[in-house]
C-alpha cells in the first residue's frame, strides 16, 4: 500500500488567475477535496456522522509553493498522516505535476482538523477521534526512519 492517499485532478481554467497560473487559494480547496474523497473512499461511516452531530473543524492550514501549475496540468495530491494529538489530526499534502518524465513537487501543505460534537443547542465540544477515522488513517502513518 502507498504511504499516502492520492487524489488526481486536471487543473481547469477556473482554477487560474489572470496571469495564467493556479491561484493560491485553490491549493487549500484541493486539500479539502482530497480529504473529502479520502473519507468517502476509506471512512464512509464518518460521513454519516457528519450528517448528525460530528464536525471536523479546520484548526490550522498552510501551504508552501515551489513551482507553478497551469490550466490542463494534471496534479496528484498525496495526503498522509502527519500526526494525531488528543482530538486533532494533522494531514500532510504533497502536490505533484504529472506528465512526461518524473512527477514534479510543486507545493507542500498541511491541515489540522479538530474532532468536535454539537450538543442539542448547537455548541461544539471536543470529542475523541471516531474509530473508523483512526482505522482509515492508520495505513498512512509516517514510516519511522531506520
TrEMBL record:
Keywords: Hydrolase
GO molecular function per UniProt: hydrolase activity
Enzyme nomenclature, EC number: 3.1.2.-
Enzyme class: hydrolase
Name of protein: Acyl-CoA thioesterase
The species this protein was found in: Nonomuraea harbinensis
Amino acid at each position: 500500500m502507498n504511504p499516502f492517499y492520492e487524489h488526481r485532478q486536471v487543473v481547469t481554467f477556473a482554477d487560474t488567475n489572470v496571469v495564467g497560473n493556479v491561484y493560491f487559494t485553490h491549493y487549500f480547496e484541493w486539500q479539502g477535496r482530497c480529504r473529502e474523497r479520502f473519507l468517502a473512499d476509506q471512512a464512509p461511516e464518518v460521513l454519516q456522522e457528519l450528517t448528525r452531530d460530528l464536525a471536523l473543524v479546520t484548526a490550522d492550514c498552510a501551504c508552501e509553493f515551489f513551482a507553478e501549475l497551469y490550466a490542463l496540468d494534471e496534479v496528484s495530491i498525496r495526503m498522509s498522516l502527519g500526526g494525531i494529538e488528543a482530538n486533532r489530526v494533522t494531514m500532510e499534502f504533497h502536490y505533484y505535476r504529472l506528465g512526461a518524465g518524473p512527477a514534479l513537487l510543486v507545493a507542500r501543505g498541511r491541515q489540522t482538523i479538530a474532532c468536535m460534537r454539537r450538543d442539542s443547542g448547537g455548541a461544539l465540544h471536543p470529542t475523541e477521534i471516531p474509530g473508523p477515522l483512526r482505522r482509515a488513517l492508520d495505513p498512512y502513518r509516517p514510516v519511522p526512519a531506520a
